[in-house]
Design goal:
Blueprint: E1 14-15, H1 38-57, H2 61-73, H3 75-88, E2 101-102, H4 105-117, E3 128-133, E4 139-144, H5 147-165, H6 181-194, H7 202-208
Parallel strand pairs: 1-2
Antiparallel strand pairs: 3-4
């Protein structure tokens, strides 16, 4: 976080209001987290995502890039990103290598302001390596970024995901929003059921008997 935010050490590993200090944007960008109109903010992000999706579908890459830059500068997108990683995601209370999470409303607001106005030279910090047990007795490695990097990733996701959703094949299911293994299985079942049975010659039937 060098040259972008200053972090103060805290024995409990939680961030207080002074942990994130905006260094490259006006202080007025820091909002009152408790008074955010989330339906309106989420609708703004949804509309911008749809504009990116439509431009990508139409092949207008210049417009796609312009809209993506608009998304990355959007206060609404920054708010949605921070809310996602600090309130909605399952790992919201899991800290990265700095041992810090964001729980206070004031810290969330300042983090959102930083995400919106961050330096283009921002470099992600190393991830924290942890291992979780698998059903077969082995362990699966996970990498846990620091909370600031997770917020930036969530903001970038909103800029990039609509572009590529417009380009993916309709029957592509891997690592896509709202799709999973069960959707793939259902599609395979539907296609197999609608396919006409293969013709078998009388000679073949006789041979089978």
């Amino acid at each position: 976080m060098e040259n972008v935010m200053t972090a103060t050490a805290e024995p409990t590993g939680k961030l207080d209001a002074s942990t994130f200090v905006v260094a490259n944007g006006p202080e007025g960008l820091v909002c009152e987290w408790g008074s955010v109109d989330w339906p309106r903010v989420e609708e703004q992000v949804r509309r911008l995502r749809y504009r990116i999706f439509t431009a990508s579908r139409d092949g207008d890459l210049k417009k796609v890039r312009s809209l993506q830059k608009l998304m990355l500068r959007s206060q609404a997108a920054a708010l949605v990103a921070v809310r996602r990683v600090t309130e909605l995601n399952a790992g919201r209370e899991t800290a990265g290598i700095d041992g810090k999470t964001v729980l206070l409303a004031s810290a969330k607001a300042e983090l959102a302001a930083w995400v919106q106005t961050r330096s283009s030279s921002w470099t992600a910090r190393p991830v924290k390596r942890v291992f979780i047990p698998k059903a077969n007795g082995k362990q699966r490695p996970l990498g846990i970024p620091v909370i600031a990097d997770r917020a930036v990733q969530a903001a970038v996701l909103n800029a990039l995901e609509p572009e590529w959703e417009a380009r993916f094949e309709p029957r592509s299911f891997g690592f896509r929003p709202g799709r999973g293994c069960h959707d793939a299985i259902e599609t395979i079942f539907t296609v197999a059921r609608l396919r006409p049975p293969r013709a078998v010659s009388s000679a073949g039937r006789a041979g089978d008997s």
